[in-house]
Design a protein that fits this description.
Layout lengths: L1 H12 L5 H4 L8 H7 L7 E2 H15 L6 E2 L1 H4 L5 H7 L7 E2 H15 L6 E2 L2
Antiparallel strand pairs: 1-4, 2-3
Helix pairs in contact: 1-7, 4-7
C-alpha cells in the first residue's frame, strides 16, 4: 500500500492519467516521469531529489495553504485507509512531516541496494 502511495503521489503530480486508477492498481513511473524526478540527470533519483519533489508536491496539494492536507485535498492521491495510515497523530490532517516520514520510508524500501538512489 505505501509503495502505491508514493508512486500515485508522484504520478499525479507529474500529470499522468494513471492517477485515476492509482489508488486501486499498481502504477509504475514511466521513463519520462523518472527523468522529471532526476533533476541532476545522474540516471537515478537520489534521496534528496525525491524528498524535494515530495515537499514541492505537498505544497501543490495544500490548496488552502493550511500547511496540512485535509482528507479532501489528499483524496486525489489516497484512499481513506491510506490517509489514516499516514495520519500518525490521528488529527484528521496530514502534516508535511507525516507525509515525508512515510514517503521516505517508501523510498528506502524501494532502494534495493541501499545506495540512496532509485534506478529506472
Amino acid at each position: 500500500m505505501h509503495k502505491l502511495l508514493s508512486v500515485a503521489f508522484s504520478a499525479m503530480l507529474l500529470g499522468t492519467a494513471a492517477t485515476a486508477t492509482a489508488q486501486n492498481s499498481t502504477v509504475e513511473l514511466t521513463p519520462e516521469h523518472f527523468a522529471q524526478l532526476d533533476k541532476d540527470e545522474s540516471g537515478g533519483i537520489s534521496k534528496q531529489e525525491y524528498e524535494q519533489f515530495m515537499r514541492d508536491s505537498f505544497r501543490q496539494l495544500d490548496t488552502d495553504g493550511s500547511n496540512s492536507l485535509s482528507p479532501a485535498e489528499a483524496s486525489k492521491i489516497m484512499t481513506p485507509e491510506q490517509f489514516a495510515s499516514v495520519d500518525k497523530n490521528n488529527d484528521g490532517e496530514i502534516s508535511l512531516d507525516e507525509l515525508i516520514e512515510q514517503v521516505m520510508r517508501d523510498f528506502d524500501r524501494q532502494d534495493r541496494n541501499n545506495d540512496g538512489t532509485l534506478q529506472p
